[in-house]
Design goal:
heterodimer; A: alpha+beta; 5-stranded antiparallel beta sheet; 6 strands; B: alpha+beta; about 35% strand
């Protein structure tokens, strides 16, 4: 069965990310967009009680949350200092920054915050790269 | 909604210099409505009304432990189109006020009852073992774990919404 998994359509694969106590989530809507949080407790089928670095403890609707693959080791409704400790022990900040999800977000942010000179530099760099690529392609075609 | 403590009594007269004071906990959006609802209920219980009485205090009541998820039991009396009935409902929330908000929305959605037709008899926090409703007890699990199946995509800001997109949405993420 497991060898079939990558060939299965995405809709048919078994669930891999669950809402559970300790699940690290990415907030993808609202004023807290972009922050990470951890599920401390489930209030009902729509809301979680959530805490995270840089955010207050609060209710968040699951619609505002995207589950990440990380889970930290905390008990239900854990105290803030225990959450901080579990977060640091699991090294979530580093692990998150290494995921391609976070890298893509950082890249988008970097691109959006370029000033005019930096955009010019990017244009020149792209031209240089494309010239190199074309040169290599020409050489390979000649062989 | 907010929760207010409203204390009122009849105006003191020559024969009754210290009338009995009555206290109610009222859920209202503001103090003005709280005072109004206080008189609405008090005049049903006692021979008192706004003109014959005075309000001594209106204080907002805040949640003692807003950081803990609790189970609330609500006893409600409401007027439907064909009569008045009692209801017992349970809600999970972190604050009394949150539970009452849910209650009003729930009553509106399920019974088409307007806020004015709902009288909250009691809202109290109950222990998990005393909860009677399955939709609340199903969350009484220390190892609760469930996926979010068939998720609908939503852009992070309304201005990124598009009417047409080149690809069908992905519902597993």
């Amino acid at each position: 069965f497991f060898f079939l998994l990558p060939t299965m359509p995405r809709e048919a694969r078994p669930f891999s990310k669950f809402v559970e106590i300790g699940r690290v989530c990415f907030i993808n809507y609202g004023p807290l967009y972009g922050k990470l949080c951890v599920v401390l407790d489930v209030i009902d089928n729509n809301r979680a009680w959530v805490d995270g670095p840089g955010i207050e403890r609060q209710q968040l609707n699951f619609k505002r949350i995207a589950l990440t693959k990380f889970v930290i080791d905390i008990t239900r409704g854990a105290k803030q200092k225990n959450v901080k400790k579990a977060w640091a022990d699991a090294n979530i900040d580093d692990k998150w920054a290494q995921t391609s999800w976070a890298k893509r977000l950082a890249q988008r942010e970097a691109r959006a915050s370029l000033n005019d000179f930096e955009r010019f530099q990017v244009m020149i760099a792209r031209k240089r790269r494309s010239a190199l690529v074309k040169k290599n392609v020409r050489q390979l075609k000649a062989q | 909604f907010r929760e207010y403590q409203v204390i009122g009594r009849l105006k003191p007269t020559a024969d009754i210099t210290t009338p009995t004071m009555y206290r109610m906990r009222i859920f209202a959006p503001n103090e003005v409505v709280a005072k109004s609802r206080f008189w609405y209920f008090l005049s049903k219980y006692h021979k008192m009304k706004k003109t014959t009485g005075e309000i001594l205090a209106v204080n907002e009541i805040y949640e003692k432990k807003p950081n803990v998820v609790k189970n609330y039991a609500a006893f409600v009396r409401y007027d439907s189109r064909s009569g008045t009935h009692n209801l017992y409902k349970e809600y999970r929330d972190t604050t009394r006020v949150g539970a009452v908000n849910q209650l009003y929305l729930d009553m509106a959605g399920r019974h088409r009852v307007r806020t004015r037709s709902v009288q909250i008899i009691d809202v109290k926090e109950i222990a998990s073992k005393d909860c009677r409703r399955a939709y609340v007890t199903e969350f009484h699990d220390n190892n609760i774990r469930f996926p979010l199946p068939h998720r609908v995509q939503r852009t992070s800001e309304k201005r990124y919404q598009r009417r047409f997109r080149p690809a069908r949405p992905n519902t597993t993420w």
